[in-house]
């Protein structure tokens, strides 16, 4: 694991009770958002469009109460990040992949991030599934 991947993995435990996942999940998400250079609007969209006040509270405190949908979204995003780290040994290339146009039929010439920003949790799942299939 590279130093880049270790920093994000350190804040996201593998197995924990759902009520203890919120703080490490949010810390991992905001690290991920930083590496992926996500705009605030994109971060909110990926988290399921929480109210602005809630989002900024999460960002400021790196913790808070999360619903099941938000935890599921963060889980998919961390899975996407992990797959990219495996597929692209260069962290910069892994982080940039999301933003690049993709000719795979799933993306129709758009970037994976554009697909993920549809707002549907299913699109996060589809991108993760695609990357898992690419890993073999």
From TrEMBL:
Q: Where are the transmembrane segments?
A: none
Highest taxon in the source lineage: Bacteria
Q: Name one Pfam family in it.
A: Xre_MbcA_ParS_C
Q: Which residues form the Antitoxin Xre-like helix-turn-helix domain?
A: 25-79
List residues of the Antitoxin Xre/MbcA/ParS-like toxin-binding domain: 83-136
| Protein name per UniProt | DUF2384 domain-containing protein
Q: From which organism does this entry originate?
A: Rhodanobacter soli
């Amino acid at each position: 694991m590279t130093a880049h991947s270790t920093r994000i993995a350190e804040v996201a435990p593998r197995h924990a009770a759902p009520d203890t996942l919120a703080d490490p999940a949010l810390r991992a998400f905001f690290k991920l958002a930083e590496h992926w250079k996500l705009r605030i609007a994109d971060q909110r969209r990926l988290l399921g469009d929480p109210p602005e006040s809630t989002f900024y509270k999460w960002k400021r405190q790196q913790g808070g109460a999360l619903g099941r949908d938000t935890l599921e979204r963060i889980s998919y995003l961390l899975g996407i990040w992990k797959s990219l780290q495996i597929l692209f040994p260069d962290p910069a290339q892994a982080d940039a992949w999301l933003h690049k146009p993709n000719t795979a039929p799933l993306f129709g010439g758009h970037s994976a991030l554009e697909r993920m920003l549809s707002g549907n949790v299913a699109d996060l799942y589809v991108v993760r599934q695609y990357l898992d299939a690419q890993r073999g």
